[in-house]
Automatic annotation (TrEMBL):
Keywords: ATP-binding, Cell inner membrane, Cell membrane, Membrane, Molybdenum, Nucleotide-binding, Translocase, Transport. Residues 2-238 form the ABC transporter domain. It comes from the Bacteria. InterPro entries: AAA+_ATPase (IPR003593), ABC_SmlMolc_Importer (IPR050093), ABC_transporter-like_ATP-bd (IPR003439), ABC_transporter-like_CS (IPR017871), Mo/tungstate-bd_C_term_dom (IPR008995), Mop_domain (IPR004606), P-loop_NTPase (IPR027417), Transp-assoc_OB_typ1 (IPR005116). Residues 290-355 form the Mop domain. GO terms for biological process: molybdate ion transport. It comes from Saccharopolyspora thermophila. This is ATP-binding cassette domain-containing protein. One of its GO terms (molecular function) is ATP binding. The keyword Cell inner membrane applies. The lineage of its organism: Bacteria, Bacillati, Actinomycetota, Actinomycetes, Pseudonocardiales.
């Protein structure tokens, strides 16, 4: 039976303190987002048992891994944790197949069965053709696929992902993100993802925790946290417009209209998806815009926020918050005021269509 994770921990070192309490349901992916030094990787190390918490409790279902009051601290190798980090860390002297079979073999599985398990997971991550290669014959993206297969082949009770896309180049990262999305939504173990990239949270996570200076300052469903940030850091990293919908042939459906864009990762028609675009790509108009192909939204203005050389214009359409960055001169020319109705327009070429984790289309 698959169990959920419950954690409430404190960890102190001379110049830093981590305090975090949260739960992760079976099959749920929770992303931990925060700047460098926020305590994200420290939190994962405490969950895995690599760092000893000063106070707290960590349990997976009825299995208690840590309880400082009762003196319980199960060692890492007995917690059944699977870890995928920035670097693949494959064994250089083993083939890909042997790397993936290592976990089952270490758990006492017979050689033939361990090979079957390894072959299954290599197939799941689309890396069967790499089975006989050595790690030094793999690209960065291929190595991460193999590392994911190795983590899952060990049948972990908890999966920890520590910025697994951070070391990949701009060509490999989207493919790996899409693969993770497909694999994670088919599994039923709790997963904690540490990332600094808001796209990882959008595509992969059901819920989002924002960690700042060792404290959780926001948490909730990913889309809600990013659409209505309460903390200045969250608002800054959200930075992107996210419009939820359902994948259609030319983009996503949003209400009774279609938002066109380029598909960043493979999508099935009818799958929950989101159109993502930067506020700097949005133009503001008093009348419905015409001309080159573009997406247009009639929004009600909510706020005008000076940001250095630009003004961030915030508007709402169908309970979805959108932002546009325009010059102060444009704000004056358009005579923009809160509660006005105006058009936000963005070219289809500036819109990326991503799968949306969590299964709710928001339409």
């Amino acid at each position: 039976m698959v169990s959920g994770l419950r954690a409430d921990v404190e960890f102190h070192r001379r110049d830093f303190a981590l305090r975090a309490g949260f739960e992760v349901a079976p099959g749920e992916v929770v992303a931990v987002l925060g700047p460098n030094g926020a305590g994200k990787s420290t939190l994962l190390s405490v969950l895995a048992g690599q760092l000893a918490a000063d106070r707290g409790r960590v349990a997976l279902g009825d299995a208690v891994w840590l309880d400082t009051e009762r003196g319980i601290n199960v060692p890492t190798h007995r917690r059944g944790v699977g870890l995928l980090a920035q670097n693949a860390l494959l064994f250089p002297n083993l083939t890909v197949l042997e790397n993936v079979a290592f976990g089952p073999r270490a758990a006492g599985v017979r050689r033939a069965r361990a090979r079957e398990i390894a072959e299954h997971w290599l197939s799941e991550v689309d890396a069967t053709m790499l089975a006989e290669r050595r790690p030094d014959q793999l690209s960065g993206g291929q190595a991460q696929r193999v590392a994911l297969a190795r983590a899952l082949a060990a049948d972990p009770r908890l999966l920890l992902l520590d910025e697994p896309l951070a070391a990949l180049d701009v060509d490999a990262a989207p493919a790996m993100r899409g693969l993770l999305h497909q694999v994670l939504r088919r599994q039923d173990r709790p997963t904690v993802l540490v990332t600094h990239d808001v796209l990882d949270a959008i595509v992969l996570a059901d819920r989002l925790l924002v960690l700042l200076d060792g404290r959780i300052v926001e948490q909730g469903p990913t889309r809600e946290v990013l659409a209505r940030p309460k903390d200045a850091f969250t608002a800054r990293v959200a930075g992107l417009n996210l419009v939820p919908g359902v994948a259609v042939a030319d983009g996503i459906s949003f209400g009774d209209s279609t938002i066109s864009g380029r598909t960043a990762e493979p999508l099935d028609l009818g799958e929950a998806a989101a159109a993502v675009f930067a506020p700097s790509t949005v133009a503001v108009h008093r009348e419905h815009p015409h001309g080159s192909p573009r997406n247009a939204f009639l929004v009600r203005l909510a706020a005008l926020e000076p940001r250095g050389d630009v003004v961030r214009v915030r508007g709402v359409v169908r309970d979805c918050s959108l932002a546009a960055d325009v010059t102060p001169a444009a704000v004056a020319d358009l005579d923009l005021r809160p509660d006005d109705e105006v058009w936000f327009a963005v070219k289809a070429a500036e819109v990326a269509i991503h799968p949306l984790s969590g299964g709710s289309s928001g339409t």
